[in-house]
Amino acid sequence: MTATDATNSDKETREATVERDDVVLEVNDLSVTFQSDDGPLQAVREVSYVLRAGEALGIVGESGSGKSVTSMAIMGLLPRNARVTGSARVLGQEVVGLTDAQISKVRGERIAMIFQDPLTSLNPVYTVGYQIAEAVLAHRNVGRAKAMDRALELLELVGIPHPEQRLKQYPHELSGGMRQRVVIAIAMANDPDVIIADEPTTALDVTVQAQVLEALNAARRETGAALVLITHDLGVVAGNVDRVAVMYGGRIVESGPVEEVFYRPRMPYALGLLGSLPRLDADRRERLTPIMGTPPSLNAMPPGCSFAPRCPMARTRCHEEEPLLLKLDERGDRVWADVGDPEAHSAACHFSAELGESTPADLFRAESVAGPDTEVGTERGSAREEATDPPAVDGTGADSGAGGGEPILTVTDLVKNFPIRSKGLLRRKIGEVQAVSGISLDLREKETLALVGESGCGKSTTARLLLQLIRRTSGEVHYRGQPLHALTPRQMRPLRRDLQIVFQDPFASLDPRMTVADIIAEPLRVHREGNGKSRRRVAELLELVGLNPEHGSRYPHEFSGGQRQRIGVARAWRSTRGC
Amino acid sequence: MLVYTVRRVLGAIPVLLLASVLTFVLIDVSGDPLANLRVMQPPPDPEVIQLQEERLYLDRSMPERYWLWITGIGGNGDIGLLQGEFGPSTQSATYDIGANIAERLGVTLRLVGAATVFAIGLAVLTGVVSAMRQYSKLDYTLTFVGFLALAMPTFWFAGIVQQAGVGFNELLGTQFFATVGDGTYQAQSESGFGLVTNALAYMTLPTIVLMLTSFASWSRYQRTSMLEVLNSDYVRLARAKGLPNRVVVRRHALRTALIPLTTVVAVGMAAIIDGTVLTERVFQWRGLGEFFIQAVAANDSFALMAWLMLSGTTVILANLIADLLYGVLDPRIRYE
Fold first, then answer.
1. DSSP, res A141
2. Which residue from B27, A511, B41 is spatially nearest to A521, judged by alpha carbons?
3. pLDDT band for position A554 (cuts 50, 70, 90)
């Protein structure tokens, strides 16, 4: 009780000190609760931040941490079963609780939003020009022609080549990166004061990401808008924002200037996020340090710190008392920071003072070997040690004895052409498009080979050709001396055991009507290796990829994307070890 | 688009041919057109039976008869689809299948057209309202009504509607609804406004009956498709632009949610044609449904074939139109 009293009185002083001159967005104790069949689910808890004119704030967190919901609440875009409390003021105007008619005057005019998936953000049945002009006309009564002129101007600003042609095209005729730039053009159509970009580059190739971020920066220069950049990609945050707020379990758990948070994190979670980031300059031998476990589910929030169950530093206090978002003063005490103070670096951790100069490896290394659940930790850890000596992710394969010896997979001059058909009555073949043109490569035992390239360059086609999932046009593929390209599907079948693939989309590649155990056991059954032991083998494989073997009876939709991908890895694992 | 249309029409020919072979065989094995004549008491002259057999080409083998029915080569000039003749009828020597079907087509088209238009209109309306007020009392009510309509057998519902019409007339003391007949005869003595009231009086009740099942299933489709679109990213972006709700719903949600309905309606045309058989029977319309029942009762193979080919062509045409419309409604579709 005393804690809450202190909170209230402190809050009053906090609010009193906020300078309001150039504040464009002020969020205060914003909470969002969804009504569901399982009772109320609190997706966002007392989020507060202040955004000044021209400033850029990054909001970072895993999926489900509440970062998108917060922004949708500000925009009034949440579904009807969401209850929003607290306050969000845009240029001093309260937007929480406005009617649809009232808030539609704010949307697009003062605060604009960019969504994650450019492929679905635009309406497929209207031209690009129409959709941009529509945004202009929603707030300015300037007439069709003027609005179209503005649309053209906006397309130029976001760097789309040949804007006159693009205006008349439909979204499906544009690439993902271009479509996202169109969405940015829509966002800047009415010179808004705030632009909220919700994972604007997540669905895009790295090279295209840079173009889109450049367009976003152009939009900011042009409109002078403040930016809220929501992402789970710390790399995107680093170069593009002034301040960063880390969200976990619906709360902001750490916030401060971007350098401060990156170089001196005060919360184990932020440190862990940094450790999960692959770095080109790091030693290849150095493993990534993943945070084990999964984010808490909203209907089973831990009573204390929501990160405590995954935190290697957690103590009894962490499991009992939820830490407040406080900064460290000069003496190392945790005190309230002014929400409006752009320099304040606050963290919600009882022991942030102890974090000091720890590196992610110091904190999470022991944890990643021991496994997330301490009860079975040691057992499981040992099982993993013996079975996983060269997991592809750590990149050590090449050093541990690989590189020498005979190649087990040899590819020479692999070519795949797809036919182009005429538009006439007979649909004759009138040409070919070369998807893969003359690839040669060797793969040795225990070697990890990376195929890198933008989407559409033929990576996946190559992978499918290697596995004979599609037929080659010409070229040869040899696996341990056998010419795969010359085998019939029937002859190929026994070899499929040794040649497996993990697909890109974990949501689409698992049969939703099969249990996880059945999915993993299927290859064993197909190759008649189960022999009654498949049940045990499935449990082993589940443990191997860090999932609870008891969850084998569940269906894919009960797992998160990352967990599903691990099921995909378990399914692809060579069904019997030893070659 | 033109190339696509030609290709589709050409593709429809083997489909129709195969359907005609199957139905021809099925009809042929399902009964003897002269069964009634043969068991007549006192037994007719064998010569009479032989004459009838020759008139109906029953003296030839089934494949021969099929060939004759298609081409008319070697017939008496009253048969051959390619020559525009549908074949002789068992009903009488003077019964002209082609003329009969043409006359009844107009009657049935009136009913089918009205029922389709109203079913689409109401389905879109209730589907949209249901989707926008998902899980509200209104949504549950409309869902209940929808499933009730789906579950109700047409003949039974037609009887109820007819009786209700009779009761309503008695209550009013005038002939407000015409509960019997198609009104073609009565329309001859009317003109101007009288034609309209006459049509309304005769058509209201059968239209309600015929459209009910289709309306129910289409409104469910429309609700699902509308819900999907309402939750889509582009509708969210449209809201984020600051467009008022009604513009978002009309311009962005409804416009795209209507696209899948075209296919559903095209497929549903078959169900509506089915429905005419029962509806016309109950309300005693002299339409194609009645024609079908008569043909079945009289073992009239060639009349049945004519009816089946006509409804088959209609269904194929409806699908073609739906596919072409798809291309107009959805710019992503390219016909090559």
1. -
2. A511
3. confident
Contact B233 A115 (CB under 8 A): yes
What percentage of chain A exceeds 90 in pLDDT? Answer: 28
ipTM at complex level? 0.81
Residue A16 has pLDDT above 90, yes or no: no
Q: How many residues does chain A have?
A: 579
> Can you tell me the distance from the alpha carbon of A480 to that of A180, in angstroms, rounded to the nearest whole number?
45
Assess whether pLDDT exceeds 70 at residue B35. yes
pLDDT at A283: 61
Q: Does A117 touch chain B (CB under 8 A)?
A: yes
Residue B151, domain extent: 109-329
How many Å apart are CA A305 and CA A352, to the nearest integer?
A: 13
Same domain, A236 and A322: no
Q: Which of residues 148-207 of A touch B (CB under 8 A)?
A: 170, 172, 183, 186, 189-190
B305/B172 same-domain check: yes
**Looking at this protein, which amino acid is placed at residue A393?**
V
Q: Is there a contact between A124 and B3 if contact means CB atoms under 8 Å apart?
A: no
Mean pLDDT, chain A, integer? 82
The tens digit of pLDDT for each residue in A500-524 reads 888 888 878 888 899 988 888 888 8
The total domain count for chain B is 2
Is the residue at A235 inside a domain?
yes
Residues in chain B: 336
The domain that contains B204 carries what CATH number? 1.10.3720.10
Q: Answer yes or no: do B72 and B113 share one domain.
A: no
| Domain presence at residue A387 | no
- Tokens coding A234: 């710390």
> What is the per-residue pLDDT across A221-259, written as a single tens digit (0 to 9) for each?
888 899 999 988 888 888 889 999 999 989 999 999 998
Same domain assignment for residues B176 and B318: yes
Distance from CA of B326 to the nearest CA of A (A): 11
Chain A CB within 8 Å of residue B8 CB: no
What pLDDT score does A531 carry? 65
Is the pLDDT at A210 greater than 90, yes or no?
no
| DSSP conformation class of A457 | S
> Residue A159: which of A140, A184, A124 has the closest Cα?
A184
Residues B125 and B274 in one domain: yes
Residues from chain A that touch B241, judged by Cβ atoms under 8 A, are 107-108, 112, 134-135, 138, 186, 189
A141 touches chain B (CB under 8 A): no
Range of the domain at A76: 21-241
Assess if residue A477 is contained within a domain.
Answer: yes
Identify the CA nearest to A478 among candidates A457, A499, A461. Answer: A499
Task: Provide the number of structural domains found in chain A.
Answer: 4
Tokens coding A402 = 């690989």
Are both B285 and B322 inside the same structural domain? yes
pTM reported for the whole predicted model: 0.80
Six-digit token string for A163: 């804007």
User: B209: which 2 tokens?
Assistant: 């009956």
> Using CB atoms, which residue from A77, A106, A122 is nearest to B234?
A122
In a domain, A252, yes or no: no
